[in-house]
Amino acid sequence: MISPSGRGSSGLAYVSEVALQPIDYRSIDAGSATDPAYDPSLGEAYLGSDTFASGSGDPVSTYRAAFGDTVAYQFDNLDLSSHYQIDLTLFDSATSTKQERVDAGGTTICPAVPVNVV
Question: Is the confidence at residue 84, as pLDDT, over 70?
Fold first, then answer.
């Protein structure tokens, strides 16, 4: 938004231009009935056959876990010139000593942190 600054009077101010930015929201409730395996026609979903869904109900009660050490999701058609925010909840038992990291496009975007630490 562009607006006048440093006005010398207390009269009305008029905005001469408004520039809106589109926001692309993508939300996945991992482990829910709406969390399918990846299919190119969907453009986003989990990858791999060694993951399983568990829990039921609201997003806090559902999750995706793996028999191995990786849970992966793929998102197609992202604009490389744009900025994205990723919100994840990583959880294990209260006594867990596991650490988890987040990679995107082969780059670590969040180094390993202890699970269950906010």
Answer: yes
Provide the 8-state DSSP code for 38.
P
Q: Are residues 72 and 42 in the same domain?
A: yes
Same structural domain for residues 29 and 77? yes
Instruction: List the beta strands (DSSP E) in 1-118.
Output: 44-47, 51-55, 62-66, 72-75, 99-104, 107-114
Number of other residues whose CB lies within 10 A of the CB of residue 31:
21
Task: Please enumerate in sequence order all residues whose Cβ is within 8 A of that of 84, keeping only pairs 6 or more positions apart, or say none.
Answer: 78
Express each pLDDT in 21-33 by its tens digit: 777 777 787 888 7
CB contact at 8 A, 64 and 35: yes
What is the count of structural domains for the chain?
A: 2
The tokens 């990786």 sit on which residue? 70
What range defines the domain where residue 97 resides?
85-118
